[in-house]
Amino acid sequence: MVLWQSYLKNISVKMYLTTRLRKNKFLILRKWVSVIHNFAYIIGLFRQLLTGVPITLMFILISWIIGFALSGIITLGRLSPKKYFSFPLNTLVSFVRSVPIVLQLFLVYYGFPVLVEKFIGVNINNINKMVFCVITFSIYYGFYLSEILRPAYLSVKQEQRDAAFGLGYTKSQANIHVIIPQMFSVAIPSLGNEVINLIHQSSILFVLGTVDLMGQADMIITTDYTASPLLTYFCAGMIYWVITIIVSIIIRLLEFRIDRYQVDDVKGGRTI
């Protein structure tokens, strides 16, 4: 009797262990299937989001080029001794720096077509929305960057200007060959920070319905009811992070290259 009970007990234990092992294998298999499925979903999500990256990068490049060129003109106007040049520009700089960029975007989007139609008689309401975005950010960074270039220009020592004039340079030649190169060695770090700020602020473009990176993320969430908003925005943030890292590396290399030719009259005692 005792042997029979022991035999039944061993069989029960073996059956229990076998069943438990099968369940564990099944659970492990389910977990791996879930991981693979989630990984495939995340890869697909990144692929969808990356379709908006070229638009974002193109917008950043165009806005920065136009804004930087505009900032040079604004800086010259603000440095002018003539008040009818400098005073209006200083007032506009104060306005642009004080008003949120998203509000400026709406002002340009709704106000610019009205002005064009009133003074030129052309209806531009059907124009691509990205044009209004480029106009807004170019104006914004044109005035904003002048706040970096102006003090950088004034930071160049008067002795450098006097030396250039002593060598027979005209004012424009002195600016091109002496003042501006030294000015940029001072301004590059701040300009680099503004490039990164432009990358971050470009994320508001989706409020006008543009299909940039953030617009693509918003479209995924609104059109796919199974999409996770948290995961979608997290993946978009990862892409912005990678873009920012790449741009930061480029800026650091540019700073290093400029610093190699920067005049250091304290350590080197050399003049150029």
TrEMBL record:
Cellular location(s): Cell membrane
Chain ranges passing through the membrane: 32-50, 56-77, 89-112, 127-145, 231-254
Top-level taxonomic group: Bacteria
Pfam families given in the database record: BPD_transp_1
Residue ranges occupied by any ABC transmembrane type-1 domain in the UniProt entry: 49-251
Major subcellular location class: membrane
Keywords of the record: Amino-acid transport, Cell membrane, Membrane, Transmembrane, Transmembrane helix, Transport
SUPFAM superfamilies: MetI-like
Gene Ontology molecular functions: transmembrane transporter activity
GO annotation terms (biological process): amino acid transport
Its membrane topology: Multi-pass membrane protein
Keyword Ion transport found: no
Gene Ontology CC, one term: ATP-binding cassette (ABC) transporter complex
Similarity-based family: Belongs to the binding-protein-dependent transport system permease family.
Protein name: ABC transporter permease subunit
Organism: Secundilactobacillus folii
Lineage start: Bacteria, Bacillati, Bacillota, Bacilli, Lactobacillales
